[in-house]
Design a protein that fits this description.
The structure holds two protein chains of two kinds.
Chain A: H1 2-16, H2 19-46, E1 51-57, E2 72-76, H3 81-89, E3 96-100, E4 112-116, H4 122-143, H5 149-155, E5 165-167, E6 173-175, H6 178-213, H7 215-220, H8 225-262, H9 268-282, H10 289-300, H11 309-320, H12 323-351, H13 359-379, H14 386-391, H15 398-405, H16 412-440, H17 450-458
Parallel strand pairs in A: 1-2, 1-3
Antiparallel strand pairs in A: 3-4, 5-6
Helix pairs in contact in A: 1-8, 2-8, 2-10, 6-8, 6-12, 6-13, 6-15, 8-10, 8-12, 9-10, 12-15, 12-16, 13-15, 16-17
Chain B: E1 4-12, E2 17-26, E3 31-35, H1 42-49, E4 57-62, E5 65-66, E6 75-78, H2 90-100, H3 105-118, H4 134-146, E7 152-156, H5 164-179, E8 183-188, H6 191-197, E9 200-205, E10 208-214, H7 215-221, E11 226-232, E12 244-252, E13 255-262, H8 268-278, E14 281-286, H9 291-300
Helix pairs in contact in B: 2-3
Classes of the chains: A alpha/beta, B alpha/beta.
Chain lengths: 461, 301
């Protein structure tokens, strides 16, 4: 037992003391924060720059009703269109030129065009078109000469905000957010997915290193191959946990500092709006989930935002999602999933002499893990459907898929069955892997076939 | 009682039999050579002794009782393919590997200091292994093998990769350790080193022990009654003897060099008597085959 401790110690310390580990661990949250903070700051900075749009309004009925925004100012076109065109070459003067060549309601040939020396910004395009649309609609409504028609139309278009409320076992009502549950689930799923791959590969490379260094023969003359394999797997698991914990601390610190710094410069409403926009745009995309985690949700828990109703609601919703329960199962599935795959990666590492040969054997693992990730993604929109249900039971996919379902609430019996199956399977794979491992680490030369791997399983040693 | 005994070991791999009923007895405080061509099964045998792999049948006895996994603390093993962690500091990994053998941290440090000073390499302790030359790495490997003062030392091809100076150093260390009480088992192709330091050998060929015993006795056993004679004589001789046939003769510096085959059933004394009557003998010796000749002869049979 003390020998396993020694091995775990070495595996852990040599990795944690590495410069690349330290740099990566510190830089990743900072880069993530920069990824969020830079667009946020830019969007704030942008509004201070005023762009002028010259309006040439042939109908004469629109210009006076166009409203300026912070960013865009409408000015009457004092010069001819050609002059502006000429000026554009000198890179001076107005940003864009809006040409309305007639009454858009009555004149069927009337057109609106926006000219600029640059590619027109999406924001400006939608700003102008929505204003003009409103004006044209108002004119149209007025042209019917029905008193109060505008008010009638507005009243008939009420707009509903749908509250989602979850009943718990006692019949109590809880305000829930399926979006929020989805996001939390996807964050957990992605973290487990990344962890299985990155650290599984680390186990594999560690085994290959020992094998190609030939030190493995010296070590297995002192300890059992199984101890060496488990020591490596556990040591690397600790490295992963250390990294995740450091990231949580660092991200928390960065959020704390930035939210303090931003308190004065960005209004809570704006921050809220930006983070919600980001969630709307990117919520389903895995690569951005951690980004949202870093900016959106914890940002919304900032005490500064309690003043607004919406932020208050989000806090209520977060507190209604059982963080403790999710955290508990997250760690269990995190470890279970890692142990299941790490032992298989160790077996792969033992069977080959160098990394280039790994593809043949890691491919099946990659396919299963990728399938699990996609099953998780699809399950997010239907967390209690058959795909989600089955994939959260099958041990090879359950660590990834169950995470998506957890925030929506999973019956305890399902969790127990699923986790029980996972434990049984990882004990089985560890046993199988250790058999391949102890034969594989002493075999050099030719890359084995699957048939030979099968034979190794039956060796007595 | 032998410190190490292998009894009827059989080990089969997928396509071939690596060991076929192999038995050997390694006597206490002797240097035991394990000889054999490539692929004969030496490494498999060594791995079984080291408890790295298990035999299909047969057993290893340690001090007369079956070998247990706790006994490996008494074995020091230097594999043919040397290997250590390239990116780890020399001192750190020596300490780590010694502790894996069951040494306490303090003991390991004290012994490490002794050996580093003995080899005059204390300054390397903080260097990464990859920064050292191959010869230096070999020394480190040797130190790691003997650090926990094992009763049984196993060297697989110890001299491969060593330059002559370091090979000599290693030879002396092995003899020194034997004199201090260790039993040494080593496998090699290098037959001159066998003659120099081995007390006993086993020759394994095609998974079987084909020859075993004391080195001197084996060589004597393979002697075929061939003698070398040098006598004062400036011309080739046309003599024929009752007790011998001349195999070859040359003249050098007014001396005749003869290789003689003694006839069967004749005593050496009788032969010498006949020769002394015929020649003015300067020297006379029996031609004992080298281990190299025995090796080749046995393996090619």
């Amino acid at each position: 037992m003390s020998k396993i401790g020694l091995i775990i110690g070495r595996e852990y310390l040599t990795r944690v003391k590495k410069k690349t580990f330290i740099i990566l661990t510190i830089l990743t949250p900072i880069l993530l924060a920069a990824l969020i903070a830079v667009p946020l700051l830019l969007s704030y900075v942008k509004s201070s720059e005023v762009k002028s749009i010259a309006v040439s309004d042939a109908s004469g009925i629109y210009f006076n009703r166009l409203k300026n925004s912070e960013q865009y100012h409408f000015i009457p076109a004092k010069e001819s269109f050609d002059t502006y065109k000429q000026k554009a070459k000198d890179d001076q003067g107005i940003y864009a030129c809006l040409v309305i060549n007639g009454n858009l309601n009555t004149d069927s040939s009337a057109q609106v065009s926006l000219y600029s020396r640059e590619q027109i910004e999406m924001e400006l395009k939608s700003f102008v078109s929505s204003q003009l649309e409103n004006l044209v609609r108002d004119d149209k409504i007025n042209s019917y000469n029905i008193p109060g028609l505008k008010q009638i139309i507005e009243e008939s278009n009420p707009g509903i905000s749908l509250n989602t409320i979850k009943w718990d076992k006692n019949g109590d009502e809880k305000e829930s957010s399926s979006e929020l549950a989805m996001i939390i689930g996807l964050i957990c799923t992605t973290v487990i997915y990344i962890f299985i791959f990155a650290y599984g590969a680390m186990v594999m490379n560690g085994v290959i290193e020992e094998k190609s260094n030939r030190i493995v023969e010296v070590i297995v003359s002192s300890v059992k191959p199984f101890d060496l394999m488990m020591g490596k797997i556990i040591g690397i698991a600790l490295v992963g946990l250390t990294q995740v914990l450091l990231w949580i601390v660092l991200i928390g610190g960065i959020i704390g500092i930035t939210s303090l710094a931003m308190k004065d410069s960005v209004s809570p409403e704006k921050m809220e709006q930006i983070s919600m926009e980001m969630i709307d745009q990117q919520g389903i995309h895995p690569s951005n989930i951690s980004a949202i985690q870093a900016s959106g949700m914890p940002g919304a828990t900032n005490s500064e935002m309690e003043s607004t109703d919406r932020a208050g609601n989000i806090i209520k919703m977060i507190s209604n999602i059982n963080i403790g329960e999710i955290g508990f199962w997250f760690i269990l599935y995190f470890l279970g999933g890692y142990l299941l795959y790490a032992s298989l990666f160790a077996a792969v590492g033992s069977a080959i002499d160098n990394q280039e040969d790994s593809a043949q054997f890691t491919m099946p693992l990659t396919i299963v893990v990728l399938f699990a990730l996609y099953a998780g993604m699809y399950s997010a929109s239907n967390p209690n459907g058959p795909l989600a249900m089955w994939c959260s039971m099958i041990p090879f996919t359950s660590p990834i898929v169950m995470m998506v379902r957890l925030p929506f609430g999973v019956p305890l019996w399902q969790l127990l069955v699923s986790f029980g199956l996972l434990v049984i399977t990882f004990m089985l794979t560890t046993k199988i892997a250790s058999k391949i491992y102890r034969t594989g680490i002493l075999m050099y030369g030719k890359k084995p076939s699957y048939k030979e791997l099968w034979k190794w399983l039956t060796y007595k040693n | 009682m032998y410190p190490l005994e292998a009894k009827n070991l059989v080990k089969a791999y997928a396509n071939h039999l690596a060991l076929d009923n192999v038995s050997l007895k390694v006597p206490e405080q002797k240097i035991y050579g394990l000889l054999g061509p490539n692929g004969a099964g030496k490494t498999t045998l060594i791995r079984i002794i080291n408890n790295i792999t298990a035999p299909d049948s047969g057993s290893i006895l340690w001090q007369g009782r079956p070998l247990q996994s706790s006994d490996i603390a008494n074995i020091g093993y230097m594999p043919e393919e040397r290997g250590l962690y390239k990116k780890m500091k020399v001192g750190e990994q020596a300490l780590y590997l010694a502790r894996l053998k069951g040494l306490s941290k303090n003991d390991a440090k004290i012994r490490l200091k002794y050996w580093f000073e003995k080899f005059d390499i204390t300054s390397w302790s903080d260097k990464k292994l990859e920064e050292l030359s191959k010869g230096m790495q070999q020394k480190i490997q040797f130190i790691i093998t003997v650090l926990h003062e094992p009763k049984l030392l196993i060297f697989d091809e110890p001299f491969s990769g060593f330059d002559p100076v370091n090979a000599q150093l290693l030879k002396e260390e092995i003899l020194f350790l034997r004199d201090k009480g260790a039993t040494v088992l080593f496998s090699t192709h290098n037959m001159s080193s066998v003659e120099e330091i081995c007390d006993e050998i086993s020759l394994i060929n095609k998974s079987k022990v084909v020859l075993e015993g004391n080195v001197g006795q084996i060589r004597q056993q393979y002697a075929k009654g061939v003698y070398r004679l040098v006598a004062n004589e400036s011309r080739l001789t046309e003599q024929t003897g009752k007790n011998y046939d001349i195999l070859s003769q040359t003249i050098q510096d007014n001396k005749i060099h003869l290789r003689l085959q003694k006839k069967t059933g004749i005593k050496t004394g009788t032969l010498l008597k006949e020769l002394s009557e015929q020649f003015d003998i300067r020297s006379f010796e029996e031609e004992i085959p080298s281990m190299n000749d025995i090796f080749i002869q046995t393996v090619q049979q």
